[in-house]
Amino acid sequence: MQLNYSVIIIGAGPGGASVAARLEQHGHAGRVLVLERYGFPRPKPCGGGLTGHVNEAMAELDLTLSVPHWPADLARVRFGSFVRTVRMARPVNIVRREEFDHSLVEQVRAKGIEVAEGEGVKAIEVTGDAVTVTTSLGRTLRCSVLVGADGAASVTRKYILANARTLPHRLFKMEMALPQSRSIDPAMLYDFTPMVHGIRGYLWVFPLPGRRVNVGVMHYPTYRKSGIELVERLRSGLAELGLSLPARGARGWPAWGYHPRAPISRPRVLTVGDAAGIDGLTGEGISVAMEHAVVAGDAVDQALRTGDMSFSGYRQAIRRAVVGRELALDRWLARLLYEKRGQGWRKWLSLVLYDPDVLDMYAARVSGSEILADQKLRLYRALLRHICSLPGRNRSLRQAMTEMYSLT
């Protein structure tokens, strides 16, 4: 059977572009095709923070940050009347995804990678000796390996999971201009106040260049919430902060959290980024995708060199990597913080807010200056402190709620 390409990558976001960059490093540039159903620059709902170990991933992939960005070295956490600001060891660069994704595509094109814009994938068929891809333009293409970097609505993910049903995270985001009368807050704001109103997640406000902010809300799937509910909660939460959400509202998208035992590959097919699972605690996906891409590119290169297309060790390779270890820990933390029904979430939110070490640890995790998964002893000590301090911390949490909302 005649192959058109060695590798076809579905999706040209950070995950797909990064896999392509890694394959170019392995010498496969001339036999790789990236299919992207939209044209660049294209709108993309996302908080836009280059968190975690994205700096190391970009350096390893020989990619550069070449677009305007806001280097935020402060993070602010809020719940009701409680506010704490922490300084991070290194800044988190906040970008506009439209610009960032476009710049990555242009960089991989300059490396000799073929990127086809405006051409999505309608169907995939895997046989013993090839993968056949049918595109939205009517082309039928064949390759040895297919990489799904096609986001939350991934056709590759559906193929791997055989349409298994799970509830997604829900995220809504909007970019808006600041009023001239309002000063720019240089800190990234993570506001957990909406948890009082049934949100299992947080509201964010991130600064951008040009007197703009990226605002949004993330909801973990403890309860079903409609898009209307989530946008209204975003609107009311921003109003408390003195910001007005424009009438046209925010754009939303689903995302699936990472699970260390969930399949992310099948013979000749593997996934990266949102298609493989986002950070369940924060909903972050850019650094996850780019860190995935390093592991995925190496796995594809090995498959092409050895002829073993099973990818039987790929899930474990992701799990053992820094990105997998961090995702597994964040999944555990998300279950503690978000899955408790009723008022059970208060016990764990008070740990996040009031422990003297936890916020510093997580700020280091967000900035990528530490690997939180390697700080288990500090986390266990924090849990022991929390058990001893829980009554007082719960009183402080109730007070923060009462002062803000006059709740009893």
Ordered list of secondary-structure elements with their pairings:
Elements: E1 5-10, H1 14-25, E2 32-36, E3 49-50, H2 54-61, E4 70-79, E5 82-94, H3 97-110, E6 114-117, E7 121-126, E8 131-135, E9 140-148, H4 155-161, E10 169-177, E11 188-191, E12 201-208, E13 212-219, H5 227-240, E14 251-255, E15 265-266, E16 269-271, H6 286-306, H7 314-320, H8 322-338, H9 345-354, H10 358-367, H11 376-405
Parallel strand pairs: 1-2, 1-9, 2-6, 4-11, 9-16
Antiparallel strand pairs: 3-5, 4-5, 7-8, 8-9, 10-13, 10-14, 11-12, 12-13, 15-16
Give keywords.
FAD/NAD(P)-binding domain, eight-stranded mixed β-sheet, 3 domains, Alpha-Beta Plaits, 24% strand, 408 residues, 16 strands
